[in-house]
Design a protein that fits this description.
The protein is α/β, with parallel strands linked by helices and about 140 residues long. The chain is built from five helices and five strands.
């Protein structure tokens, strides 16, 4: 079972993304299978992985979350997972801010990310989640 680690702080510019990226590569160099999730609409972690036009991405954590909110059957989680230098990641884009606004009106929003991760987390030793500066709600992924 993969361990889920959320890297968060209420303040911006404190190194959440840098910590996520460095921890992912350190764990990978130790032979661990790692998935990172860019859970920030600024998509800084996504750009660290070399994705330049995040607004053009068809498969992001925002899109995956929206399918969960709308109770649709998502495409295979594999469609959302990209890989760079031995670390898998699910990218983000500004679309996540639309999801954030919609989550404010949803019952059970605090469990939605956990539900999204359920079918894939056991593939990894670690799932690292890079959050936005203000985590307004509990993502319900602590284990």
């Amino acid at each position: 079972m993969g361990k889920v680690i959320v890297i968060g702080s209420q303040k911006g510019g404190v190194g959440k993304t840098t910590t996520t990226l460095n921890l992912a590569h350190s764990l990978q160099s130790m032979g661990k299978k790692v998935l990172t999730i860019d859970f920030d609409s600024q998509a800084n972690l996504t750009t660290c992985y070399g994705v330049e036009n995040t607004n053009e991405l068809e498969y992001t954590i925002g899109h995956l979350m929206m399918t969960q909110i709308e109770e649709q059957v998502p495409e295979s989680p594999d469609a959302f997972i990209q890989s760079k230098d031995g670390v898998d990641f699910i990218p983000s884009s500004i679309y996540l801010s639309v999801v954030d606004a919609k989550l404010r009106t949803e019952m059970g929003a605090e469990r939605m990310l956990a539900e999204v991760l359920e079918p894939i987390k056991d593939r990894y030793d670690y799932v690292l989640i890079d959050t936005c500066a203000v985590a307004k709600w509990n993502m319900g992924v602590a284990h």
